[in-house]
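Quarterly update from the structural biology core.
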Amino acid sequence: MKSPTFDGSPQPPSRLAVLTWFTFQWLCVPLELVIRLVWNLAMFFGDGVDGAGMKEPLARFMSPAKLALSMSRNPRRWERHVDRLFGHLADQLRGEKFTWGTLIRHPQMYVSRESAGVKSRVRALTVDFREFRGANYPVVQASLARHGLKAKPCVTGDPSQGLWVYLTDDLGIPVSESSAA
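Predicted structure, tokenized:
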């Protein structure tokens, strides 16, 4: 769903919502992991085909440092966070080695892009809006460029739904018109 109100200005989350989630996550995340584990075992032994992913609950977990950041209304603090985040992701994309935290919080995707009239698919990492929502969007774009990254909104034209972040100099995998059909 497209957000008609996103204008690039900081949109920090509600402090009450952040505190509520931080409090209840200690019950919700482990409970959801147990439910997903039981579901996966039932699917495995029952010859089911669809299992439940175990990464999603862990990706929603909020550390005390994230709590402090989310409670902050200081755009400079968010901008420092965004700069560190994109620097970290750029280093990992260049080295093609990803930490467990990156694999859990920023799932890999292949996204299409067009450069000089050539269509290709590039490996990208998904960055959720909650990671940069307290910073001005032009600062987010400047941080991406500073680290040699480009971003494509997960939903066309709406960065408030998250970003796919990839290296600017990544040539990707060429896609021919016949294979795209």
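The first strand starts at residue 108 and ends at 115.
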